[in-house]
């Protein structure tokens, strides 16, 4: 076999390619950095929000208000659906920046579909909560604090996912700008053995309590009922329809 001599065309080509990355190694990407300034944040659509999740023996109830605002000072939308199905028997709320929350939901929904396609079974709610926490901690999703609710073979589950990726399960939880007002109602009204219908009333009253005083929450309530059969979501601009 011929050995290339020094300063031949072949040897010069090898030297030129010496600093190039190995084409057979995996190419590692990077997440986009969030470089929003404080001035930018004033013009970001935010949900403000009060969202409530309650676990019952029969399923999960999630309730949210319907308002989006600019910088917390101007109501930009009065009919925002802040709870979305992301799994055959699970849903997630939108809390924080609208863009970040929508991107977060789309990403989780895609991962759930891939899991089902590859394994031929639904992802457990605990695994889904862990995945959501990992994404919140390491992804480019700005200012989110959603509630995840779902039902699987282990029963009913409600998790809060904090902006740093913390995952906490509880019988009931509240997130958003009106959380203190809603928690006051839930602490008094929640009962461990309440039915799903009772939980819907308690959750709706919690949202109503928040919208009375929190400027970031308002314009009605979305109620989501999750059971082993699926996810059912309905919006109501008039609280009298559900109370």
Task: Describe the model.
- The protein has 243 residues and is α+β, with helices and mostly antiparallel strands.
- The protein has a single domain, classed as Glutamine Phosphoribosylpyrophosphate, subunit 1, domain 1 (4-Layer Sandwich), CATH 3.60.20.10.
- The chain is 31% helix and 26% strand.
- Strand 6 and strand 7 (90-93) form a beta hairpin.
- Helix 5 (179-189) packs antiparallel against helix 6.
Features:
243 residues, alpha+beta, 6 helices, 13 strands, five-stranded antiparallel β-sheet, Glutamine Phosphoribosylpyrophosphate, subunit 1, domain 1
Number of domains: 1
Task: Name the CATH architecture.
Answer: 4-Layer Sandwich
Instruction: Round the mean pLDDT to the nearest integer and report it.
Output: 86
Query: Strands across the major sheet, in which order?
Result: 11-2-3-12-13
Low-confidence stretches: none
Number of separate strands: 13
> Helix/strand-derived class?
alpha+beta
Terminus-to-terminus distance: 88 Å
The Cα radius of gyration reads: 24 Å
Helix proportion of residues, in percent? Answer: 25-40%
The CATH topology name reads Glutamine Phosphoribosylpyrophosphate, subunit 1, domain 1
CATH superfamily: Aminohydrolase, N-terminal nucleophile (Ntn) domain
